[in-house]
Automatic annotation (TrEMBL):
InterPro entries: TPR-like_helical_dom_sf (IPR011990), TTC38 (IPR033891)
The entry's keywords: Repeat, TPR repeat
Similarity comment: Belongs to the TTC38 family.
Record organism: Caldovatus sediminis
Signal peptide limits: none
Name of the featured protein: Tetratricopeptide repeat protein 38
Amino acid sequence: MPLADANGLAVSTGSRAAVGHLDRAGALFARFRADPMAELDAALAEAPDCAMAQLMRAGLLLCATEEGLEAEAAGSVAAAREARTNERERAHIVAASAWLGRDFDRAREGYGAIVAAWPRDLFALQVAHQLDFFLGRRETLRDRPAAALAAWREGEPGFGHIPVMQAFGLEECGGNAAAEEAGRRAVSLDPRDAWAIHAVAHVMEMQGRAEEGVRWLAAREADWAPGNLLACHNWWHRALFHLDRGEVAEALALYDRGVRPGRAGGPQPPPALELVDASAMLWRLRLIGVDAGAARWAEVSDAWAATLAGPQSCYAFNDVHGIMAHLGAGRREAATRSLAALERAASAPASAGGNAALARDIGLPLGRALVAFDRGAQGEAAALLAPLPPIAHRFGGSHAQRDVIALTLAESLLRAGEVGAARAMAEARRAAKPDSLFARRLAADTATAAGVTD
């Protein structure tokens, strides 16, 4: 009789110790705590032929969205193919193989099919959730966890992670009140659930509740900061709240403490997910005229140069943030190389889907706009950016991350002398976030440029 994991799913191994390591790895990943990979390596030390350990390794590596990790992920998938497998594990092989082929849509469908057939496969649910996030599929980001809940009972291990995923999806779909309620409840059940803390912070960001957001994250720092894979991102959110309050010094201090590549205790080399946050924060500072310093820009540019070393775009969202860092560091040749990688990805046939679609629809025009902005061609930048906000969700990431598109557009319009359009954007932002000093400052800048006195 095959052994079963903590969620009652059959695992093709005879080692109970290996299954225990799988369970612990899954629990760590669900809470974004380090180090699930160490648990999977321990499982393979107990049972080298454990296919599910290899497949979980592959899923974790692929979630990093880094080309440099694809070979290792491919090795794990190949090892799983050679091992004894059951139907669910073979479905994991198919889904991971699609991701390795950079067919993100088919990978998303594959992991989603696993969740539909085995709704207690929490690992597959989380990977599908990440793919929904990477591809900007807001509705399934919200609805997939809700559908899986029917197979779980409240209070059993693992249950609390599912409504947390739903909470984040609710926020991305504009259901802020329900998202906050679900997120706060999840935090009450597990105060160390960094994804739940993060979901509530997102609601506060969307509503311009910057002062409350600072308090929320500061009060729970001990729960999300140490040994957490989401710590850098929550530091970024906290710095973003300070920036929204006009507290530039505080934002920079938090950047140096928790986001900056090379910070004490930070991973080396930094993962792409962290470099995205570093680039986005420095670019926002640049938009409001703050000189973050050559050293900060160079660190991020150097890290991206190592991460985006291949000629082909792996994930367009990363390439765009690499372009931001290279431009901020004054390295236009490096930005041009990243732009060329996006162009190659975008030139793939329309049927290719996945990253080709991300690059073609959003990544390439956005990358070109950033380059135009950097060289002072503000009218060109604005023209490239203007069509993007209504479809930006298709680029992946969150509302908070994609907001840099609208911010860059508003600044481009203002600098290009298209003050009416810039003022309309500023007033819309102030209406959505009435307590946001950042929004009010943008409105004031456009009013000054238009010669309007409020």
